[in-house]
Amino acid sequence: MVRLGFIIGFIALLGILLSGLAAYRVHDQELTIDRIALARAIDVHASLVQDRLTERELLARVASGLFRTPAVIKPNMLEPLRSAIYAFKTDFVVASWIARLKPTELSAAQAALSSAGFPNASIRNYDDTPLDTTKITEPINVLMDLEPRSEETKALPGRSYDQDGVRGAMLARAMAEKKSVASDPVPLLRPNGPIGVIVAAPVIPEGAAEPAGFITFSYELASLMLTNDDMSLFSVALRDPRATGGELIANDQGIVSARTIAQDGPLPSSTRSVSFGGRDWQLSYFAKTNSARRAEQTAVIVAAIGFAITAMVCGLFGYVAYNNLRLSREIQVRIGFERRLTAVIDELNHRVKNILAVIQSIVTRTLRHGSDIDVARELLIGRIHAMSNVVSLLSESQWQGVKLKGLFEARAIPHADRIAISGPDIAVSARAAQSLSLLFFELASHSDEGLSLVGKHPHITANWTVTGEEPDTVFHFRWEEFNTSEATRRADSDFGLILLDRVAPEALGGTAKRYFTDASYIYELTAPMETVVDMTERDRTEKFSAPVRPVR
């Protein structure tokens, strides 16, 4: 009996020791895995932030390199750069031309701003207070042009930023160093506007020693910081260079706010430095979960199981089972990732081939033998721009469709400001979006070739409706140009006729017709909604874009 008790006690003691060892190993492994996962996520995030910052700084450098300054006082200096600026597809808030004007040029600058239609053409301080130009003896930096022009931004030209503590310091440093420079974080557009940064690139004419002005781009901080959603392992904050002990944070809605760093507050899990505009910026990362506490809780559970069983076999089984589960989970994630990667590559190859085939057809038809080279060049740029716009919209939605109204953007459709659109807010498939984008451009590019007989520009309406009951709903699109006739409207090109009459209807599985009335030109397109929306394509794309999650 004593010997049996001894054996049982020995087995119980051995089981307790093994359970404790298993709990220790679990704690160590969980803590290591969490820390490695957090470190890798932070490294990836910092790398993506640096890539975004480098891309935006490159835009400023390229724009300043392409810029020509025949007359710094012109209020439309950005006009030749508009297509190049939008070709980068960066999310800038405002692009502007700040001219460095001599005192003798201020009167001409005011006259130029007034002729350009800006509401306030006076040369004034950055805060809209009056500026006595008669007392100015040195060149000053004045905002002369910007993009995009809206009701809010039109009030900005004419401001001098030399007395602005943030923008003035940025321009002075850019002029001294003769390279692109970033500003401190500052509210954009208005005092209570979104917090962002501005990068300024000096424009130095050939043979000159001083800049003639500056190309600037402003960006919201939220998009540059790449803030994460609720599923992220960490939250990120940007150390505010304006205030010691302060930092900028962004919530999941993209709203940036400032906060004071408490002396007894939590320390960041890690920090990373990124470079932008000739200066270093520090990103602080705060883990959303306590890895040590989580590891301790997991270890307590394993130990409690081992102690309750008090048996060596059960303790070993728990330890082996935990490691097998972890290994199985890693294998399943790897297999799923490889399958997903192969499917995504196949899908990407298919879509790239389709896009290249469309572009090849556009170039071949547009530059056919005998065509006017100037007209062909404009049409080719416009058509490729329309394709680029729809591809950007599809990329933003992860190729799961595009809102139909988004295809009528002014930067992709000529005369978009005169097109009255109406219709339900539906999302069309990727294939339909590409065909409709080219269709809209082709219709709009021929709508203002000349004035009508009554001396008015054509008024254009574009509307669409969805009729019928599921699953036999039908999409109807109607384009009508008023104040035009067959005599005043330029005839459609060969490519346009093929696109209007055959390519677009066949791509949507529908029919089309075009005709003139007594007072208008009409184009109508009818197609089944199942081809316009294409839920099969959307479900497949959504499946590809879904993140790979481990099996629990």
Secondary-structure topology with pairs:
Blueprint (H helix, E strand, L loop, with lengths): L1 H65 L15 H6 L6 E8 L4 H10 L8 E2 L14 E8 L11 E2 L6 H11 L3 E2 L3 E2 L7 E9 L9 E8 H5 L8 E6 L6 E5 L5 E5 L9 E7 L2 E9 L3 H19 L2 H55 L6 H24 L5 E2 L15 E4 L4 E2 L1 H16 L13 E9 L6 E9 L11 H15 L2 E6 L3 E9 H5 L1 H11 L7
Parallel strand pairs: 2-4, 15-17
Antiparallel strand pairs: 1-3, 1-8, 5-7, 6-7, 7-8, 9-10, 9-13, 10-11, 12-13, 14-16, 17-18, 18-20, 19-20
How would you describe this structure in keywords?
Beta-Lactamase; Heat Shock Protein 90; 3 domains; six-stranded antiparallel beta sheet; five-stranded antiparallel beta sheet; 44% helix; flat; ATP-binding; transmembrane
Can you describe this structure?
With 552 residues, the chain is of the alpha+beta class. It folds into three domains: 2-58 and 291-337, no CATH class; 72-290, Beta-Lactamase (2-Layer Sandwich), CATH 3.30.450.350; 344-538, Heat Shock Protein 90 (2-Layer Sandwich), CATH 3.30.565.10. The chain is built from twelve helices and 20 strands. The strands form five sheets. Strands 1, 3, 5, 6, 7 and 8 form a six-stranded antiparallel beta sheet that branches. Strands 11-10-9-13-12 form a five-stranded antiparallel beta sheet. Strands 15-17-18-20-19 form a five-stranded mixed beta sheet. 30% of the residues are buried.
